[in-house]
Amino acid sequence: MFGPRNLTRETGTVVATTQAETLDQHRTLVDHLDERVRALVRGEGVDPQRDATVVRRIAEGVVREHDERSLTGQVAPVPDVGTMVGELVARVAGFGPLQPFLDDPTVEEVWINDPSRVFVARHGRHELTNLILTSAQVSELVERMLKSSGRRIDISQPFVDAMLPEGHRLHVVLEGISRGFSAVNIRKSATGPP
Protein backbone atom coordinates (compact mmCIF):
# COMPACT_ATOMS: atom_id res chain seq x y z
CA MET A 1 0.00 0.00 0.00
CA PHE A 2 1.54 3.29 -1.07
CA GLY A 3 0.44 6.82 -0.29
CA PRO A 4 1.38 10.06 -2.03
CA ARG A 5 5.06 10.43 -2.83
CA ASN A 6 7.27 13.42 -2.17
CA LEU A 7 10.46 14.10 -4.13
CA THR A 8 13.22 15.65 -2.04
CA ARG A 9 15.22 18.28 -3.96
CA GLU A 10 18.44 17.74 -2.03
CA THR A 11 18.88 14.07 -2.87
CA GLY A 12 16.47 13.57 -5.75
CA THR A 13 15.10 10.49 -4.01
CA VAL A 14 11.47 9.55 -3.75
CA VAL A 15 10.15 9.24 -0.22
CA ALA A 16 6.85 7.45 0.30
CA THR A 17 4.64 9.31 2.76
CA THR A 18 1.37 7.74 3.70
CA GLN A 19 -1.61 9.76 4.80
CA ALA A 20 -1.28 8.22 8.26
CA GLU A 21 2.33 9.41 8.54
CA THR A 22 1.37 12.88 7.38
CA LEU A 23 -1.49 12.98 9.89
CA ASP A 24 0.83 11.82 12.69
CA GLN A 25 3.36 14.52 11.77
CA HIS A 26 0.59 17.14 11.78
CA ARG A 27 -0.69 15.99 15.19
CA THR A 28 2.83 16.04 16.62
CA LEU A 29 3.39 19.56 15.30
CA VAL A 30 0.03 20.81 16.59
CA ASP A 31 0.63 19.20 20.00
CA HIS A 32 4.08 20.82 20.22
CA LEU A 33 2.80 24.27 19.26
CA ASP A 34 -0.25 23.83 21.51
CA GLU A 35 2.03 23.18 24.52
CA ARG A 36 4.02 26.32 23.71
CA VAL A 37 0.88 28.47 23.34
CA ARG A 38 -0.58 27.13 26.62
CA ALA A 39 2.69 27.82 28.47
CA LEU A 40 2.72 31.42 27.23
CA VAL A 41 -0.98 31.87 28.04
CA ARG A 42 -0.34 30.64 31.60
CA GLY A 43 2.80 32.77 31.86
CA GLU A 44 0.90 35.91 30.89
CA GLY A 45 -1.99 35.05 33.21
CA VAL A 46 -4.52 35.08 30.36
CA ASP A 47 -7.99 33.55 30.75
CA PRO A 48 -8.23 31.85 27.34
CA GLN A 49 -12.01 31.73 27.26
CA ARG A 50 -12.35 35.44 28.01
CA ASP A 51 -9.39 36.70 25.99
CA ALA A 52 -9.43 34.78 22.71
CA THR A 53 -7.85 37.74 20.90
CA VAL A 54 -4.83 37.56 23.22
CA VAL A 55 -4.65 33.79 22.63
CA ARG A 56 -4.74 34.46 18.87
CA ARG A 57 -1.87 36.97 19.19
CA ILE A 58 0.16 34.43 21.19
CA ALA A 59 -0.62 31.63 18.69
CA GLU A 60 0.39 33.84 15.77
CA GLY A 61 3.70 34.59 17.51
CA VAL A 62 4.37 30.91 18.26
CA VAL A 63 3.62 29.87 14.67
CA ARG A 64 5.72 32.75 13.27
CA GLU A 65 8.63 31.76 15.55
CA HIS A 66 8.30 28.12 14.45
CA ASP A 67 8.26 29.11 10.78
CA GLU A 68 11.38 31.23 11.26
CA ARG A 69 13.12 28.20 12.82
CA SER A 70 12.00 26.12 9.84
CA LEU A 71 14.15 28.32 7.59
CA THR A 72 17.23 26.90 9.34
CA GLY A 73 16.07 23.34 8.69
CA GLN A 74 15.72 22.56 12.41
CA VAL A 75 11.98 21.96 12.15
CA ALA A 76 9.47 21.34 9.38
CA PRO A 77 7.59 24.41 8.12
CA VAL A 78 3.92 24.99 8.89
CA PRO A 79 2.03 24.15 5.68
CA ASP A 80 -0.81 26.66 6.24
CA VAL A 81 -0.14 29.36 8.84
CA GLY A 82 -3.74 30.65 9.00
CA THR A 83 -5.20 27.18 9.48
CA MET A 84 -2.62 26.32 12.14
CA VAL A 85 -3.30 29.51 14.09
CA GLY A 86 -7.04 28.83 13.91
CA GLU A 87 -6.57 25.26 15.13
CA LEU A 88 -4.41 26.42 18.05
CA VAL A 89 -6.90 29.11 19.06
CA ALA A 90 -9.74 26.55 18.89
CA ARG A 91 -7.77 24.13 21.06
CA VAL A 92 -6.73 26.69 23.67
CA ALA A 93 -9.55 29.25 23.73
CA GLY A 94 -12.44 27.46 22.06
CA PHE A 95 -13.89 24.00 22.05
CA GLY A 96 -11.12 22.22 20.16
CA PRO A 97 -12.17 20.00 17.28
CA LEU A 98 -15.84 21.02 17.73
CA GLN A 99 -15.07 24.73 17.22
CA PRO A 100 -15.28 24.67 13.40
CA PHE A 101 -18.84 23.29 13.68
CA LEU A 102 -19.77 25.93 16.25
CA ASP A 103 -18.34 28.66 13.99
CA ASP A 104 -20.14 27.33 10.89
CA PRO A 105 -23.40 29.29 10.47
CA THR A 106 -24.99 26.41 8.52
CA VAL A 107 -24.64 24.01 11.49
CA GLU A 108 -27.68 24.10 13.78
CA GLU A 109 -26.78 21.33 16.20
CA VAL A 110 -23.79 19.16 17.17
CA TRP A 111 -24.00 15.92 19.09
CA ILE A 112 -21.67 13.16 20.15
CA ASN A 113 -23.32 9.76 20.48
CA ASP A 114 -19.95 8.05 20.84
CA PRO A 115 -16.45 9.53 20.53
CA SER A 116 -16.19 8.00 17.06
CA ARG A 117 -19.66 9.24 15.98
CA VAL A 118 -19.97 13.02 15.90
CA PHE A 119 -23.05 14.35 14.12
CA VAL A 120 -24.20 17.78 12.98
CA ALA A 121 -27.52 19.04 11.71
CA ARG A 122 -27.61 21.40 8.74
CA HIS A 123 -30.88 22.71 7.36
CA GLY A 124 -32.74 20.13 9.44
CA ARG A 125 -30.75 17.19 8.04
CA HIS A 126 -28.47 15.08 10.21
CA GLU A 127 -24.95 14.28 8.98
CA LEU A 128 -22.28 11.99 10.40
CA THR A 129 -19.01 13.97 10.34
CA ASN A 130 -15.56 12.55 9.70
CA LEU A 131 -14.43 13.78 13.13
CA ILE A 132 -13.29 10.99 15.43
CA LEU A 133 -12.55 11.84 19.05
CA THR A 134 -11.18 9.88 21.96
CA SER A 135 -13.05 9.45 25.24
CA ALA A 136 -10.41 11.67 26.86
CA GLN A 137 -11.07 14.43 24.30
CA VAL A 138 -14.82 14.24 24.95
CA SER A 139 -14.23 14.45 28.70
CA GLU A 140 -11.91 17.44 28.27
CA LEU A 141 -14.43 19.20 26.01
CA VAL A 142 -17.26 18.58 28.47
CA GLU A 143 -15.14 19.90 31.34
CA ARG A 144 -14.19 23.02 29.37
CA MET A 145 -17.78 23.69 28.28
CA LEU A 146 -19.14 23.24 31.78
CA LYS A 147 -16.41 25.45 33.25
CA SER A 148 -17.50 28.27 30.97
CA SER A 149 -21.10 27.80 32.12
CA GLY A 150 -20.38 27.46 35.84
CA ARG A 151 -22.17 24.08 35.96
CA ARG A 152 -20.80 20.67 36.93
CA ILE A 153 -21.50 17.02 36.22
CA ASP A 154 -20.73 14.04 38.45
CA ILE A 155 -22.31 10.83 39.70
CA SER A 156 -24.67 12.76 42.01
CA GLN A 157 -25.76 14.91 39.04
CA PRO A 158 -25.33 12.74 35.90
CA PHE A 159 -27.34 15.03 33.58
CA VAL A 160 -26.69 18.70 33.01
CA ASP A 161 -28.21 21.45 30.90
CA ALA A 162 -26.17 24.62 30.52
CA MET A 163 -25.82 27.73 28.39
CA LEU A 164 -22.52 28.28 26.60
CA PRO A 165 -21.12 31.83 26.29
CA GLU A 166 -22.32 32.14 22.67
CA GLY A 167 -25.88 31.40 23.76
CA HIS A 168 -25.78 27.76 22.64
CA ARG A 169 -27.62 25.16 24.76
CA LEU A 170 -25.52 22.28 26.08
CA HIS A 171 -26.90 18.96 27.33
CA VAL A 172 -24.55 16.29 28.72
CA VAL A 173 -25.27 12.81 30.04
CA LEU A 174 -22.47 11.37 32.15
CA GLU A 175 -20.49 8.31 31.11
CA GLY A 176 -22.01 5.24 32.75
CA ILE A 177 -25.55 6.56 32.44
CA SER A 178 -25.19 6.56 28.65
CA ARG A 179 -23.66 3.28 27.38
CA GLY A 180 -20.08 3.79 28.56
CA PHE A 181 -19.31 7.29 27.26
CA SER A 182 -20.52 10.82 27.87
CA ALA A 183 -23.22 11.89 25.41
CA VAL A 184 -23.12 15.55 24.37
CA ASN A 185 -25.61 17.72 22.51
CA ILE A 186 -25.11 21.37 21.57
CA ARG A 187 -28.07 23.21 20.09
CA LYS A 188 -26.79 26.42 18.57
CA SER A 189 -28.54 29.69 19.24
CA ALA A 190 -29.89 31.37 16.14
CA THR A 191 -29.33 34.83 17.57
CA GLY A 192 -26.14 34.51 19.67
CA PRO A 193 -25.72 35.26 23.37
CA PRO A 194 -28.60 36.82 25.29
TrEMBL record:
Domain of life: Bacteria
UniProt GO MF annotations: ATP hydrolysis activity
InterPro entries xrefs: P-loop_NTPase, T4SS_GSP_E_ATPase
Homology family: Belongs to the GSP E family.
The name this protein goes by in its record: Pilus assembly protein CpaF
Organism: Nocardioides psychrotolerans
